[in-house]
Amino acid sequence: MSVTGLCQVCENATATYGCQRCGRAVCEDHWNDGVGACTACVQGRQQ
Ligand SMILES: [Zn+2]
Ligand SMILES: [Zn+2]
User: How far is ligand 1, taken at its centre, from the CA of residue 42, in Å?
Assistant: First the structure.
């Protein structure tokens, strides 16, 4: 899976994950591995 470009949340880091819920490409900091979605999708329901 190659995700190119910058994280669409912070626009300050290379995107390494693709969220299947919203389609955003996000960096490690904005990826919730436990949920398998970006932080924008899980915000408000974090652990
Ligand atoms: Zn980010
Ligand atoms: Zn998302």
Answer: 14
The contacts of residue 26 (CB under 8 Å, 6+ apart) are 7, 8, 9, 15, 16, 17, 18, 19, 38, 39, 40
**Length of the chain, please?**
47
Q: Considering the chain, what percentage of its residues have pLDDT values greater than 70?
A: 85
Measured in Å, residue 17 CA sits from the centre of ligand 2 at 10
What percent of the chain has pLDDT above 90? 81
The per-residue pLDDT for 46 is 46
